[in-house]
């Protein structure tokens, strides 16, 4: 059969195929270009700015490492940074400790009830963050719900003050707000464990606890690590919660960065501190990525 | 073959209900020690429910499961001396083959050295010695199947429950595994309860077959029993392309009978063990003739049971050919004849008229 070039739709060189190739190229460019424009470029600008400095209220665009030197030498910063990391580890630990049983319960429900309940635990994410913090303040505050109950029960004579405006309050509030981020990955991991391998474990003589230890936990450990790193990273970058429930003693690294862009007006130093934070987060994520990778092939 | 064996496990009037739906209507079944019993039935017949009841995954609504004569209702799954081979193997994906196989011993607290030795021995039994360090995902379906089997036999259970274990395998592998299972069962001298919906598989593999339909047991017997001496039309139809005719018993005397069917009156020689005697004179039943018992074309002159037919279709299936014919007198009645392809090659042209016939010994009467 003689070939008839240019007749078959989509054949190379036809108008239709050119348009198709063009639109595919455009899509490719967008898929690559948008993240570059909105994520990589700002990060690069930030990185560059962290090597500038401020003099007489003006940003001087010449390169220096003095911002980084200041972070490591000035006793005002490194201790707060380490304390903040410890705080966020606490948040991660609390969210996982509370989230695992909840996720386990959800995964053990049947059919539609399972997803309805899972949704109920995720709905708080749709609520304004600020409103949730106010609600927690209303519970923990000096004249708050908790104190009033304890007072009226006669358990205490005057309001407890250690509940609010300190690092404990920050940790508790962050844990409550970030809990869904721990529940979800653990739930997904548990849900993916086929029911019949739990049956198989029992059939082979394992008790419920043995099944949990040898089958359920190893197969949900990855999801748990993901949940912990989610809440850790989100807590690390937070500056609103410490500001609202932290008081003066609840000073965190996020608040320091925030202040550099606010009243301290030292954007280059703020940028340097942010880069430090970013390095920690990226390091943590890549470590998580390695832990999460299954030791057995899929 | 007929030596009486001890009953290992017995189901007594077992009923299972889910809400308003009764899925098992009073099951009575004894599984003998050391036998290879097959539960056969279409999907939804309740065979998996029976298996799960025995395994302890679900509880009977009424009735009892007896092991050595004692009710085991109070014995939880992990204490029952049975192990299961699951339909899709249910191997632990995060454990090696060796850890999967040794799991049952591990949870019982066996010593490491003992586990290692028993795992090696069991893997040798299923010809997987070289795969101990692999993970399930690195194995083929047939290999995973054998790991599941090894895992189930390592604790030397009294009874091994196999839930359609060969369903996912291709035809050739399936036949190999059938032979392998049979050999293994004899080697380890353990009772097997094997579920399948494939009648050919059941006939090949079982010592005894229990045919189930819609939550009831319809017949229990050796493969020969259910194949040659079905006790119901259901079983007759389930095993191959049996020809079934409405029949009324006209005479019955000294193991010989005559039945009247829409295409003539036929002679019948009763088999002592058959259910034929269950239909009295004047009663209605079904005459069953196996497709391979039918002769076509040049019929042995001694055969009295004959029908004139028109050949509709001849299909060649390798060594045998299937011939579909229609009765000339009653065009609504279709018969299936199976014969060797060599015999079928001789003058069987679709559209031509001929005769089919069968011996009075090779037909069978079941209650309607």
Account of the 3D structure:
The complex is a heterodimer of chains A (298) and B (368). Chain A is mainly alpha-helical and 298 residues long. In chain A, 71% of the residues lie in helices and 2% in strands. Chain A has helices at residues 15-49, 66-73, 78-108, 111-122, 129-140, 145-152, 167-191, 195-203, 208-237, 240-245, 253-261, 267-292, and strands spanning 53-55, 58-60. Chain A has a two-stranded antiparallel ribbon with strand order 1-2. Chain A is globular and about 70 Å long. A 6-stranded mixed beta sheet of chain B has the order 6-7-8-3-9-10, sandwiched between helices. The longest helix of chain B has 18 residues, at 171-188. Chain B is elongated and about 75 Å long. Classes of the chains: A mainly alpha (298), B alpha+beta (368). Chain A binds chain B through residues 194, 196-197, 199-207, 210, 214-215, 218-219, 294-298, and chain B through 55, 57, 76-79, 82-84, 86-88, 90-95, 103-104, 106-108, 135, 137-138, 151-152, 155.
Descriptive keywords:
heterodimer, A: 298 residues, mainly alpha, two-stranded antiparallel ribbon, 71% helix, globular, B: 368 residues, 6-stranded mixed sheet, 5-stranded antiparallel sheet
Short description:
The complex is a heterodimer of chains A (298) and B (368). Helices cover 71% and strands 2% of the residues of chain A. Chain A has helices at 15-49, 66-73, 78-108, 111-122, 129-140, 145-152, 167-191, 195-203, 208-237, 240-245, 253-261, 267-292; strands at 53-55, 58-60.
Task: Show the helix and strand layout.
The complex is a heterodimer of chains A (298) and B (368).
Chain A: H1 15-49, E1 53-55, E2 58-60, H2 66-73, H3 78-108, H4 111-122, H5 129-140, H6 145-152, H7 167-191, H8 195-203, H9 208-237, H10 240-245, H11 253-261, H12 267-292
Antiparallel strand pairs in A: 1-2
Helix pairs in contact in A: 3-4, 3-7, 3-9, 7-9, 8-9, 9-12, 11-12
Chain B: E1 7-18, E2 21-32, E3 36-40, H1 47-55, E4 62-67, E5 70-71, E6 82-85, H2 97-107, H3 112-125, H4 141-153, E7 159-163, H5 171-188, E8 191-196, H6 199-205, E9 208-213, E10 216-221, H7 223-228, H8 233-238, E11 243-253, E12 256-261, E13 264-269, E14 284-289, E15 295-296, E16 305-317, E17 320-327, E18 334-340, H9 341-344, E19 353-358, E20 363-367
């Amino acid at each position: 059969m003689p070939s008839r070039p240019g007749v078959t739709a989509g054949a190379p060189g036809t108008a239709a195929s050119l348009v198709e190739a063009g639109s595919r190229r455009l899509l490719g460019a967008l898929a690559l270009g948008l993240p570059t424009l909105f994520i990589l470029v700002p990060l690069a600008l930030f990185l560059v700015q962290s090597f500038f400095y401020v003099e007489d209220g003006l940003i001087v665009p010449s390169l220096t490492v003095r911002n980084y030197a200041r972070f490591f030498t000035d006793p005002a910063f490194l201790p707060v940074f380490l304390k903040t990391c410890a705080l966020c580890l606490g948040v991660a630990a609390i969210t996982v400790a509370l989230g695992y049983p909840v996720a386990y319960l959800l995964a053990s429900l049947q059919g539609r009830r399972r997803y309805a309940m899972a949704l109920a635990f995720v709905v708080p994410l749709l609520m304004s963050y600020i409103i949730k913090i106010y609600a927690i303040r209303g519970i923990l505050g000096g004249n708050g719900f908790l104190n009033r109950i304890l007072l009226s029960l006669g358990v205490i004579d005057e309001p407890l003050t250690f509940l609010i405006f300190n690092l404990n309050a920050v940790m508790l509030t962050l844990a409550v707000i970030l809990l869904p981020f721990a529940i979800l990955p653990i739930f997904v991991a548990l849900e993916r464990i086929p029911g019949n391998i739990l049956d198989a474990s029992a059939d082979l003589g394992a008790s419920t606890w043995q099944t949990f230890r040898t089958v359920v936990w190893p197969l949900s450990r990855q999801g748990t690590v993901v949940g912990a790193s989610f809440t850790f990273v989100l807590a690390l970058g937070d500056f609103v919660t410490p500001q609202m429930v932290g008081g003066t003693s609840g000073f965190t690294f996020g608040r320091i960065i925030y202040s550099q862009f606010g009243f301290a007006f030292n954007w280059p130093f703020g940028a340097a501190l942010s880069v430090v934070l970013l390095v920690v987060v990226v390091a943590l994520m890549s470590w998580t990525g390695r832990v999460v990778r299954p030791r057995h092939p899929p | 073959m007929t030596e009486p064996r001890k009953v290992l496990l017995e189901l007594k009037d077992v009923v299972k209900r889910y809400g308003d739906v009764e899925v098992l209507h009073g099951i009575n079944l004894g599984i003998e020690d050391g036998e290879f019993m097959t539960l056969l039935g279409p999907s939804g017949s309740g065979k998996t429910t029976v298996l799960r009841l025995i395994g302890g995954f679900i509880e009977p609504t009424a009735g009892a499961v007896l092991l050595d004569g004692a009710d085991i209702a109070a014995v939880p799954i992990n204490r029952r001396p049975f192990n299961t081979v699951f339909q899709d193997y249910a191997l632990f994906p995060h454990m090696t083959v060796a850890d999967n196989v040794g799991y049952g011993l591990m949870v019982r607290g066996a010593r490491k050295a003992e586990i290692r030795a028993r795992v090696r021995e069991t893997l040798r039994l299923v010809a997987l010695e070289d795969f101990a360090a692999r993970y399930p995902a690195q194995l083929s379906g047939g290999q995973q199947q054998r790991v599941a089997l090894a895992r189930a036999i390592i604790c030397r259970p009294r009874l091994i429950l196999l839930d359609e274990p060969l369903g996912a395998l291709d035809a050739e592998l399936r036949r190999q595994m059938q032979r392998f299972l049979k050999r293994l069962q004899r080697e380890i001298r353990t009772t097997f309860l094997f579920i399948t919906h494939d009648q050919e598989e059941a006939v090949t593999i079982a010592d005894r077959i229990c045919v189930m339909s819609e939550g009831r047991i319809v017949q229990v017997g050796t493969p020969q029993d259910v194949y040659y001496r079905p006790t119901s039309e259901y079983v007759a139809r389930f095993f191959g392309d049996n020809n079934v005719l409405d029949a009324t018993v006209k005479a019955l005397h000294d193991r010989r009978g005559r039945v009247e069917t829409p295409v003539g009156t036929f002679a019948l020689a009763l088999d002592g063990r058959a259910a034929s005697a269950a239909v009295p004179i004047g009663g209605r039943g079904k005459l069953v003739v196996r497709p391979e018992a039918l002769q076509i074309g040049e019929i042995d002159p001694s055969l009295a049971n004959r029908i004139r037919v028109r050949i509709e279709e001849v299909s060649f299936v390798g060594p045998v050919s299937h011939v579909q014919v229609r009765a000339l007198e009653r065009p609504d009645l279709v018969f299936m004849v199976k014969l060797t392809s060599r015999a079928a090659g001789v003058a069987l042209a679709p559209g031509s008229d001929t005769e089919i016939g069968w011996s009075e010994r090779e037909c069978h009467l079941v209650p309607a």
